[in-house]
Amino acid sequence: MTLPYAEPYRIKMVEPIYQSTKEERQKWIKEAEYNLFNLKSDQVYIDLLTDSGTGAMSDKQWAEVMLGDESYAGSRSFQKLDKAVKDITRYNYFIPTHQGRAAENVLFSAMVKEGDIIPGNSHFDTTKGHIEFRKGKAIDCTIDEAFDTDIYHPFKGNIDLVKLETVFKENDISTIPFIIITVTCNTAGGQPVSMENIKAVSRMCKSYGVPVLFDAARYAENCYFIKEREEEYRTKEIIDIAREMYSYGDGMTMSSKKDGLVNMGGIIALNDESIYRTAITFNIMYEGFITYGGMSGRDMGALAVGLYEALEYDYLASRITQVQYLGEKMAEFGVPVQKPIGGHAVYLDANKFVPTIPKEEYRAQALAIELYIVAGIRGVEIGTVLADRDPITRENRYPALELVRLAIPRRTYTHNHMEYVAAALKTIFDSRDQAKSGYRITWEAPIMRHFTAQFEKV
Ligand code: F0G
User: Fold this and answer.
1) Tell me: the pLDDT tens digits for 326-359?
2) Is 124 among the residues known to form the active site?
3) CA 262 – ligand 1 centroid, Å
4) Alpha-carbon span 136 to 450, nearest angstrom
5) Which residue has its alpha carbon closest to ligand 1 atom 11?
6) CATH for 59-309?
7) What distance in angstroms lies between residue 358's CA and the mean position of ligand 1's atoms?
8) How many CB atoms within 10 Å of residue 211?
9) What CA–CA distance (Å, rounded) separates 25 from 65?
10) Nearest ligand 1 atom, CA 99
11) Prediction pTM value
């Protein structure tokens, strides 16, 4: 008999969460202008808004918090982190930042200028935001399979080499400062990129003289998928897979709030000395001195430990199994989800779930709101609201995928919570025919509108 899945940790401290009533939630979401970001966390029962900075730290990480050295320059905690980052990535230089987008801000200040083109696999919105803010252009070269939620492909985050080479050939190569590989690819559904693809992309980029950067927010989960799905990596240690992956690139930015297993932090690591020198000046201006960059010593210590814990096989197996379990359970109920299930989240396909709602009325947003009202679960729209307006025409951009992401915080919720989420979705799915109208935007910010947009019912 094979024993069932169970978490490789036990719980030492608990945080109560409030189970509200449907009436309360109807009132609260209206007060929140129908934007789930505006809810108070106490108004949410199961918070799947993001897996970013929402995980639980281990006893060893908390022990590092107590050992934090808060010296302004050259702290012991910085040295621990510096050693860990260089040991894992094998890059020569490390710059700490307060989170992932800050790493993008600092590094892109040194590398991106007006008119530049940065190809990649479905850039995350802050990455794209930092490129477009500098009047550069992000070009999506993800394989087509990623945009059909029903097709099974083991590495839907892969870059299409033909699309990439077309970008190289059709543009002045000096306007392409680097390409960015996001591992795993959040925007495409938490989908991994294969080592084979990373190698091929790296080879092509070398032949054109274009550097490769990783957006490494969920790199450990990506390495787990490589181990599980690529034959030649089956017996390799996750950390060695990570080192090999980084060896095909020239640097990385990382939001440590995901696979760093901490609540706040960011990383830049790279090999090029002159870019490093330019970037540290921006770091001092935007983040803080180069040995803390917006992080406190105690947080750097916890991150130094978290980076290694996130590469442990048992941790990753449990993490990914939990997400897969939720996704498969929903698929069993007939709920349309992105397949295969991604690493950090289950993505509901709103185009298939509620085709009865006009796409101009933000289907995915409407579904996310319904899930909150019915069960107190907070997910996030990854569709038209997130895709924002075209920077030139100011028209709504309708992405190929209209998704609701249910991101699972690391080491935070139990198996029973997953059962609850799946059952809630089944309830909504069974009455989906009644959904006829969605929402309209009453106010929005000129960039990254999804965080603060306000809506009303149509
Ligand atoms: N890159 C990726 C792939 C991300 O998923 C994120 C954040 C960032 C960069 C930016 O990092 O938040 O530390 O500034 N993703 C979060 C999410 C917000 O919910 O997916 P950050």
Assistant:
1) 999 999 999 999 889 999 999 999 999 999 999 9
2) yes
3) 13
4) 21
5) 100
6) 3.40.640.10
7) 29
8) 20
9) 36
10) 13
11) 0.95
